[in-house]
Amino acid sequence: MEPTAQSPGLPLIDALGPSGPYRTHRRQTIPGVTGAPVAELSLAPELYVNRTMKALREAAPPPAEERSAMLARAAGLFGSAVLGGMTLQEYESAVTRVSGVPLTAVRTATRVLSERVGQAWSSAHQARPRGAVADRHDPLVRSGQAVWARRGQVLAVHVPGNYPGTHGYWPEALALGYRAAVRPSRREPFTAQRLVLALHEAGFDGDQVALLPCGHEAADVLVRGADLAYGGDEIIRRYADDPGVLSLRPGRSKILLTADTDWREHLDMVVDSVGRNGGTGCVNTTAVLVEGDPAPVAAAIAERLAARPSLPPDDPKACLPVQQTDAARTLERHVLERARGTRAWLGGTGFVDELGDGSAVLRPTVHQVESPDAPQVGAEFPFPCVWVAPWSRTDHGVAPLRDTLVLTAVTQDEALIDALADEPTISNLYIGDTATHWHRPGLPHDGYLGEFLMRTATMVRL
Amino acid sequence: MRAEQSILDLPHDADPDPDELVRAAMRWHFSPDTGSPFWLARAASLDFDPLSDVKTYDDLTLFPNVAAELRDVPAADLVPRGYGDRPDIVGVFESGGTTGAPKRVVCPSDWLAKLVDWSNRNLDVHGFPRGADWLGITPSGPHLVGEIFRRSALTHGRYGFQVDLDPRWVKRLIKDGKGTQADAYAEHVIDQAAHILRTQPIGVLTVTPPLLARIAQREELVELVNEKVRAIRWGGTQMDTDTAELYRTEIFPDATLYGHYGSTMILGIAGQRHGTQPGEPCVFDTFSPYITFQVVDPVSGGPVAYGERGQVVMHHVSKALLLPNNLERDTAVRVPAPEGRIGDSAADIAPVERFEDEAVIEGVY
């Protein structure tokens, strides 16, 4: 975290505040997965963050219809324009170099992100209760009406840098008239920067949405200076019990294969759920629960995943994530420790494949555990790492499927489907042959963001 | 004896030879007639003879760091006997107690007068107005900074208005996880300062960086400061370059911003160097040869290269006090002292680094 001296030639990511770009003397070097520096990040002091939060609070949001048009414009700019001196391709390449997410996955993510931003207005309004109108100027208010209203004015955004797609949701807050203070991840600051630049270019001023790269102390100021906060980094975790903070939860996404189906027909979907986009997302499958003998399923998944090549992340054929070797080795030690006592089908003696340039591929791992209650079933890591467990309707039931972001249940059992649908800790339920990473704009991810940002109020104006 | 006393009694701008000063100080502090009971007793356990072995400034490194002993020594034992039976003492002052129980020193009035004369000349160089009314939002109580504020206000300015601040209470609240109470206390302090700012013609503000940041959060106070205050003297904790620049360019563009880096354990302060380029970290120059710094490698104890960061070691050598080799908690970048001064100057002060552990957090967020 030490400030670094200026290194000439590296792209410099400035803060973007109410009076434009703000460049600081205190900087942080953003290393690529090989360890070589890729960019420098300005670290804004607390005083600047505080003043920016104040400016955001004092600013009035643009009228609703303009916000919708500006978001659509920002989506187009994000997906095509030169922003911060970078073309889309240069930006995607930079994301790959610092995050180690395969280039193809980054390209998919940026396309989806752009699509989500373009539809932020309509997505946001999907969350509106059907009894509520969007605006107090609606004529229905004349006779008494529920109105959808903001819970606050300023949202702090702390989304992590594991995958660029995580930035797809918070622009809904802008659609709803919030001002947003975005702290870019210090691992991958490019997506936050590009998105804020696109929003500015599209007409949102620096007092509507600000980019605030900063250290830990100032990041606290950012959370405290906002009405609500959203994200999943270490700062947000510290405030997770605060009702004004919406914490992105670990996905722990799972697949359930019951005995009334032939798992072989769904193997493609299972392998895709585990490994798509490098396996770095919360919607990638963490555990597969099998009614019957899990060994053949584990063996088949392992066989498929083992065939994936170890390549640098910017190789067009790359499909596995890459990290700096030291970080990869730390993760490897941790996962091996966590896997103790399980039956390894893949990666049992290690999964780090060094590329010789300071970086290393995180190769897939497949472990069979003895029971769906095994603690490993909830252990989620940012690479294709799956735990395969036996499951029985009578012995275990719904219990081991709790606390899941996306559950794909391949089953014919309607009673079981009812029970799963009724389980409040399963955020999303896919029945049949749909991968856990499947998603469409307008559908909730972990509930609608609007459920957190908005409230309903009765209004009458006679 | 007369000659020795005279070098220890020179005015602040006399520029004594550092080695001669050290030899005179050794004779003063280690002669039975003039030394303090503390040093006279402590001399017996030293493995060298201060009178014959400490000939130059560099020989001060022979001394152990005795700062920790100042937690328990009776204050009266610290006063050199040479000050006589009724020494003219300003007060007993304590460190903030950040790293354990407070340490204690005794400050004779001749020393404080010399220090404030030196400091006032710095204020002139930085363009502080003479004869202004001062507002001090700094610790008072047992801390030397409060006394330095009062003396500065009275000798460089006209009246000194003070708001009390108990830094130990704030530290305790924060340590106990009572952040909201610490906030409320800080706002209470600012409320009191606001009343003084509204009603009195305050021309100089002395404040800590966290409290200055709170002032900057209140529009009314920013306007009052810009309307009345010509110079702001800050100290107590560090202020980073970016923050200082925001004050200078955007928030208080017409006020002089001048920093202090001090410690009760050196019975004084180091002052910000004048003429540093905007964007450069501020450099603190000491009241050499009485107060001197060394920026060292904490492991080897040797000096780091100029421009490198190290830990700050402080020395005080005067008639009032001998306290060499006090290793401070802070780190700084080592900078050459000004021409003709000894020791190091210190830039970009920061607390000792904290290390972040590398535990793997499960989950992909």
TrEMBL record, chain A:
Query: What is a GO molecular function of this protein?
Result: oxidoreductase activity, acting on the aldehyde or oxo group of donors, NAD or NADP as acceptor
Q: Short name of one Pfam family for this protein?
A: Aldedh
Q: Which InterPro entries would you find in this protein's record?
A: Ald_DH/histidinol_DH (IPR016161), Ald_DH_C (IPR016163), Ald_DH_N (IPR016162), Aldehyde_DH_dom (IPR015590)
Which keywords appear in this protein's UniProt record, sorted alphabetically?
Answer: NAD, Oxidoreductase
Q: Which domain of life is it from?
A: Bacteria
Renumbered residue ranges of the record's region Disordered: 1-25
Q: Which residues form the Aldehyde dehydrogenase domain?
A: 33-447
Keyword Oxidoreductase listed? yes
Family per similarity comment: Belongs to the aldehyde dehydrogenase family.
UniProt protein name: Acyl-CoA reductase-like NAD-dependent aldehyde dehydrogenase
Per the UniProt entry, what species is this protein from, by scientific name? Streptomyces caelestis
TrEMBL record, chain B:
Highest taxon of the source?
Answer: Bacteria
The UniProt keywords, alphabetically, are: Ligase
GO MF annotation terms? ligase activity
What InterPro entries does the record point to? ANL_N_sf
This chain's protein is named Phenylacetate-coenzyme A ligase PaaK-like adenylate-forming protein
Organism of provenance: Streptomyces caelestis
